[in-house]
Amino acid sequence: MNVVTPFEGIGASVKRKEDLRFLSGRGQYTDDINRPGQTYAAILRSPHAHGRITSIDTAAAAAMPGVVAIFTGADMPDLGGIPCGWQIHNKDGTPMAEPMHPVLAVGKVRFVGDAVAAVIAETRAQAKDAAEAIQVEYEVLPAVATLEAALAPGASLVHDDVAGNICYDWHIGDKAVNEAAFIKAAKVVEFDLVNNRLVPNAMEPRAAIGDYDPTTEDYTLYTTSQNPHVIRLLMGAFVLHLPEHKLRVVAPDVGGGFGSKIFHYAEEAIVTWAAGRVKRPVKWTAERTESFITDAHGRDHVTKARLAMDADGKFLALHVRTLANMGAYLSTFATSVPTYLYATLLSGVYATPTVYAEVKAVFTNTVPVDAYRGAGRPEATFLLERLVDVAAAETGMDRVEIRRRNFIPADAFPYQTPVALQYDSGDYQATLDQALEAAGWAGFEARRAEAKARGRLRGIGISTYVEACGIAPSAVVGSLGARAGLYEVGTIRVHPTGSVTVLTGTHSHGQGHETTFAQLVTDRLGVPLAQVDVVHGDTAKIPFGMGTYGSRSLAVGGSAMVKAMDKIVAKARRIAAHLMEASVEDVEFDRGTFRVAGTDKTRSWAEIALTAYVPHNYPIEELEPGLDETAFYDPKNFTYPGGCHICEVEIEPETGITTVVNFTAVDDVGRVINPMIVEGQVQGGVAQGIGQALLESCVYDSEGQLVSASFMDYQMPRANDLPMVSVATHTTLCTHNPLGVKGCGEVGAIGSPPAVINAVVDALKEYGVRHIEMPATAAKIWGIINASRPAMAAE
Amino acid sequence: MYDFEYHKPGSLADAVKLLSADPDARPISGGQTLLPALKHRLNKPTSVVDLSGIAELRGIKREGNKLVIGALAKHVEVATSPEVKAAIPALAQMAGTIGDTQVRNRGTIGGSVANNDPAADYPSAVLGLNATIVTDKRRIAADDFFQGMFTTALEPGELLVAIEFPIPEKAGYAKMRNPASRYVMAGAFVAKTGGAVRVAINGAGPGVFRQADMEKALTANWSPDAVAGVTQPADGLNGDIHGSAEYRAHLVTVMAKRAIAAAG
Ligand SMILES: Cc1cc2nc3c(=O)[nH]c(=O)nc-3n(C[C@H](O)[C@H](O)[C@H](O)COP(=O)(O)OP(=O)(O)OC[C@H]3O[C@@H](n4cnc5c(N)ncnc54)[C@H](O)[C@@H]3O)c2cc1C
């Protein structure tokens, strides 16, 4: 018994356990939950990007039908601000500016969408009706909607006490060494670029329900979160001042996050606090427009870079200066994204001896900006991989050759970069070779010529990248300003009949953890997949956890589970040894069977599990009954996935429309647990990367109104915008976690944008294009073609 | 959505009575434009008069050298109707590209033409084919019907009943979609009917309009090349985050060429 057939362990593409629930409409999302006596919250939001609130009159609104209560910032004097989880220090050692982010606006509003008042009513419609009846007078102030506007001399101040709108002015690397290297350079390539702002647009809008039991004084928050324990800590300790044991946070099924559901949002605090005030449950569900103007946006960098090379095209030094938009307030991890998740990756896959990066984070009157799929690493990759292409063009080198010449060699690991990280493993030549082969790189010119005969401009682009996942260890990130640990927690609960419940502090919002994590258990303990369930998303069930972001769940959470399984197996072997009257050292365990080495004496998994809970014949003096173990795992290092993406596009010159005709991804994500799930994760990431590169345009006008605040104007990638993405993996194992895994959630979004833009620039090469900013829309491309048409005609 | 009263009259006369009794009542057909507006609280009608039960507004039929399409004909019905496909294939093809499957299963030709969204498809076919709009009160020539962005000759309470399309010798339609909304960024409907050429441009301007220079060029020479050299002035065209007026002007010529090629 317990023989696992068909194979369901590590490496098997088993179908996702969660999909029957999701695909048949039986998921339980936050908005599906209804509590007895529930009320509804509507949030009145600022229509102005910047203004002083001169008065709020809620009297008429309060008298409207169904209104239970109306709250404004003035009703919450004792609440803390929404906290920022990472303190960055300026070049001069002083801490960053960290202005108060009130739950409901006090005194000033700072972006269109800033929460001004909360109406609690019997129905959603009544809450909205009353919100419209609140009279707010604003003294409208000039808004700074862009980095440029915020940094202009005499610019309006988003926070009156933050001079120059600068949150921090930070740097990393050795400036003197860097400057010296530039002096020796044979060639310096200078390059400016923008990393465009994105709206995350998870399919499920954010929602939150606050519930309060006046008899026990217990609070429960149901919320669309990627990390319920983190929300409990941030909201309980910093905002509402509720002790952890009185606050339960449940993140049930969550329909996509992409980072935007990591952060603690004001609405979570509002419904929880309000539930305590009105002594009834309070539900809030974002409408799509609200999502556009309140979910933390992503990216938004403006960068100037200089690359020094020697006469052979070897990189000598890189100097990067980046302006990063923080939006109006500091969202939970906003400050870490353009620093420790961006600048530390600026060595990329290259053995550049010195990198010096300076980052200024800037407040603007826009939606807060924070981590979005890839968080910092797509920005670093886009910069490097465009810069390398520009360097190749300007030195006449081949795009592949310049990369090969500068790669960190496969035998150089562990490799210490000049920007703090130490890569443990990788093989960039191998992923490059495999991708070139799969994409048919060598045969491209024939395809270009064939396209030209059809009147199309065809181009090919490459990107070779490394990224960093599973941010850790706690001690290191703590020394860099993180206000949380970055370990993970796993519990393996073996039941008396041998089936297993896994409790994990990570959270699944589409990634398939219920399957992948169960496969780890199946592989190690030999318990069939159907007998393993994974539980996540409830602080009342799971001991603790840091949640899911930065592709950490398997590398960190999976490793915690492995450690817990080690404890389980160790204990189970002692029970087996007792039953078989052997010494523990002689008991072997292999996928469900305990055997005395070299004999045919065996005990099954189920027998041991039962004995643990029915300890009639049991070494009770030395061993506690039960088979239930928890482990906390704090990694020694980040993990470093990497690889090569190749994109091929065709442009129709008459309209400027770009079609992605081929996309090849070869990623090194470490050991692959479920190839099908990895493929899906990479495809999804590439879809978002193509979205960023070609389609998604987040536009503010000079008054700070979000012009692209609906799907009528913001172009999410659709199925017909995307090619079939060819996904393959090439594995080098992570050397420091027990599974050898690296992470696959973000590689698609990190590697792909520069591959796409490099392809577009290549397609347009006869027009002398050096760079095109993302998104490379049809209108933009036609503009380039049209502008150079007279010149070409004149030739 | 604000509260409103809901009526579902069984006859055109009853619908007209309800609408003329209350200036803040609104007719609804497929609801694919009105419902989103209501949900966004952009519209606050006192009552909504559902036209879907009125038999007089239904049907697609050929009458001599005309095709008569009832206001309630859904996009999917126009796209798949054997009569339309036989008489004006370009119109069926256009209907099949409006929005997505859900929209085509609900949205109606009457609703679309009465709404006159500058980025909508049908208005260019109505204008390009020199159709006649039949209302509960009168008949209106297409040239008089469209009066700029979301504005038509319909009077308050007046209902679009049917559209009569003369059957052309040749007709073709081409459009570039707005990348985000998938409505029309620039489109051209070209037709030759009884020897007369019309070119109607949608998407590019604040309302559907006829392109006289192209009509002249095509009258002389019905071929894509004839319009390739005709420049649409950018003046007065739409410019927004999706593309400048110059880009749209350029697309007008490209789409006109393609429409003629499609018409054959
Ligand atoms: C996602 C989406 C995508 C779309 N894409 C496109 C597209 O690509 N191209 C395109 O052209 N359209 C598009 N549309 C609009 C769609 O075609 C609508 O169906 C159409 O514009 C309106 O038709 P309706 O029957 O739904 O009208 P309704 O929404 O019911 O009504 C529209 C307006 O017309 C009035 N009205 C309705 N019927 C009559 C009548 N008989 N007489 C007088 N007034 C009347 C109503 O009062 C209202 O003001 C899209 C819509 C959606 C939701």
TrEMBL record, chain A:
Pfam families, alphabetized: Ald_Xan_dh_C, MoCoBD_1, MoCoBD_2
Lineage: superkingdom: Bacteria
Keywords of the record: Molybdenum, Oxidoreductase
Domain called Aldehyde oxidase/xanthine dehydrogenase a/b hammerhead: residue spans: 24-142
Chaperone listed as a keyword: no
Coiled-coil segments on the chain, per record: none
Signal peptide range in chain numbering: none
SUPFAM superfamilies: CO dehydrogenase molybdoprotein N-domain-like, Molybdenum cofactor-binding domain
Cited PANTHER family: ALDEHYDE OXIDASE 1-RELATED (PTHR11908:SF132), XANTHINE DEHYDROGENASE (PTHR11908)
Name of the featured protein: Xanthine dehydrogenase family protein molybdopterin-binding subunit
From TrEMBL, chain B:
Keyword terms of this UniProt record: FAD, Flavoprotein, Oxidoreductase
Database matches in InterPro entries: CO_DH_flav_C, CO_DH_flav_C_dom_sf, Diverse_Substr_Oxidored, FAD-bd_PCMH, FAD-bd_PCMH-like_sf, FAD-bd_PCMH_sub1, FAD-bd_PCMH_sub2, Mopterin_DH_FAD-bd
Domain of life of the source: Bacteria
One Pfam short name: FAD_binding_5
Domain spans labelled FAD-binding PCMH-type: 1-170
Protein name according to UniProt: Xanthine dehydrogenase family protein subunit M
Keyword Cytoplasm: no
Keyword NAD applies: no
Stored Gene3D superfamilies: 3.30.465.10, CO dehydrogenase flavoprotein, C-terminal domain, Uridine Diphospho-n-acetylenolpyruvylglucosamine Reductase, domain 2
Organism lineage: Bacteria, Pseudomonadati, Pseudomonadota, Alphaproteobacteria, Acetobacterales
